[in-house]
Specification:
276 residues; mainly alpha; 12 helices; binds flavin-adenine dinucleotide
Length: 276
């Protein structure tokens, strides 16, 4: 891509237009500015404003997550200064849970540094008999699956450039396990649209869900989606829900029976994730 000089004082409307021209061929959506400003000043201000209070409830879509990922991804904040801020402002389980999540980011970067381009292929065999197709289905890409939840996840991604971590987990499990699509199609979709889209956290999270970088595939059921979204889609949903059921029966439908966690590799070579 040719280097384009973009003056710092360009008005927002023109900035979106110039960015659209600069990114032509890399991004298919309409050119627009994100709802959060970029840059070091905005990043420091977002960090200063983040108290991390009740972070322990982060799995709920209404939970108090930081939304600092895009600043970390683009080098506007370092992981060390975010950790230092957390230690100064947060306490107890909020603090330990926040540092645990930051550690995932660092861990994924270290795996990328160690394995390089290998992270873009299966790091291990899937832990079940997986038959995946390569392409992202059009109805998924265009948010017209008919499932209010899945369509909303895609809308958040494409229109907002951001998804809550739980939505990313649900969407990736839906795509890989229900729609039987290769995780790499989802990885590319996320990289195109996420403001924090990167190689390490993105590829390795997809692989974690797919079970090519974890001992078991990740999947959810309707009760889990309903609980952590406070019923925002389920309360009014009228479609036949593919996620409805107990975990055991869904596991049977998706994987042909219980998937026993694969034995852990010898100590010292253990790269597998635990709970996310
Ligand atoms: C399929 C999938 C794809 C993902 N792709 C990306 C990606 O491209 N880029 C990216 O930065 N994150 C990715 N994540 C991880 C995670 O969803 C985001 O980092 C998080 O949602 C960002 O929101 P936040 O800043 O509010 O996080 P917070 O909950 O406030 O966490 C603070 C910081 O910790 C790090 N972090 C939090 N959760 C995770 C996690 N599960 N894995 C790794 N780091 C984490 C992030 O840097 C985040 O900014 C992906 C997760 C999944 C399941």
């Amino acid at each position: 891509m040719a280097t384009t000089f973009i003056p710092g004082d360009l008005p927002d409307e023109q900035l979106a237009q110039v960015l659209g021209q600069t990114l032509a061929g890399l991004y298919t959506g309409p050119a627009r500015l994100p709802d959060r400003p970029g840059g070091r000043t905005a990043a420091l201000s977002a960090l200063k404003d983040y108290s991390g209070k009740d972070y322990v409830g982060r799995n709920d879509l209404r939970g108090h997550v930081s939304r600092l990922s895009m600043y970390l991804r683009h080098g506007m904040l370092s992981i060390v200064e975010v950790a230092e801020h957390a230690r100064a402002r947060m306490r107890g389980r909020d603090l330990s849970e926040f540092l645990r999540q930051l550690t995932w980011r660092e861990f994924f970067l270290l795996v990328l540094a160690q394995d390089g381009a290998k992270v873009l292929g299966n790091l291990e065999e899937p832990k079940y008999r997986a038959r995946w197709t390569d392409a992202l289905p059009d109805d998924v890409r265009e948010a017209r699956t008919g499932l209010p939840c899945a369509d909303a996840w895609v809308t958040h991604l494409v229109q907002g450039g951001w998804m809550h971590n739980h939505e990313r987990l649900w969407f990736s499990a839906y795509l890989i396990h229900w729609r039987k699509v290769d995780w790499r199609a989802g990885y590319r979709f996320f990289r195109e649209h996420l403001l924090d889209g990167d190689i390490a956290s993105n590829a390795l999270s997809w692989q974690w869900v797919a079970s090519t970088f974890s001992a078991k595939p990740y999947f959810m059921n309707q009760a889990n989606i309903e609980k952590y979204s406070a019923g925002r889609w389920c309360n009014t949903c009228t479609v036949q829900c593919p996620f409805r059921g107990e975990y055991e029966s869904i596991e049977g439908q998706l994987f042909g029976g219980p998937v026993n966690p694969a034995p852990m590799p010898p100590r010292g070579n253990d790269r597998r994730g635990g709970r996310r």
